[in-house]
Design a protein that fits this description.
The protein has a single domain, classed as Gcn5-related N-acetyltransferase (GNAT) (Aminopeptidase). The protein has about 150 residues and is an alpha+beta fold. Strand 3 and strand 4 form a beta hairpin. It contains 5 helices and 6 strands. This is GNAT family N-acetyltransferase.
Length: about 150
């Protein structure tokens, strides 16, 4: 069952059919973490995630995307609110909806990566890695730029 949350003129919906991949790609393709991301990749990522779309007058103005097995682990990514809608507490409301979602309770680990929003995420219980030497990754920060040249 999909969740829907209301706050004045804004709605957050987890209904996959309501997510606007074109609007999401327009923002993500200029973000520091997904610069140049193709629409096809955005569409695939949305289909395989729990998405919290933020809407104003039926237009998508934000997103929080959770990659999860809904039992043990979740990764929070692609969190944004369009610039013209910032300063209204929407990112806080978006995160409140994410961390309170029924499918994300009782997880052993919930992680994210951020360059500049540590204080926002700390409000919701996120902390620096307890034992960073145990974590490993494969990272390809320029993958969308490289693939666009092919």
């Amino acid at each position: 069952m999909f969740q829907e949350y209301h706050n004045g003129e804004y709605i957050i919906s987890t209904d996959p059919a309501k997510q606007d991949a074109v609007a999401i790609q327009a923002y993500l393709s200029r973000s520091y973490w997904a610069e140049g991301i193709p629409l096809e990749i955005v569409e695939k990522s949305l289909l395989n995630s729990l998405c919290f779309g933020l809407f104003h007058n039926k237009l998508q103005v934000g997103l929080a995307r959770v990659i999860t097995d809904r039992a043990t682990y979740a990764y929070l990514g692609d969190v944004y609110v369009l610039e013209e809608h910032r300063g209204k507490g929407l990112s806080k409301w978006l995160l409140e909806c994410v961390v309170s979602h029924p499918d994300l309770q009782g997880l052993r680990r919930f992680s994210l990566a951020t360059r500049d929003a540590h204080s926002l995420y700390q409000r919701y219980g996120f902390t620096p890695l307890k034992v960073p030497d145990r974590m490993m990754e494969i990272t390809r920060p320029d993958i969308y730029k490289q693939n666009s040249n092919i």
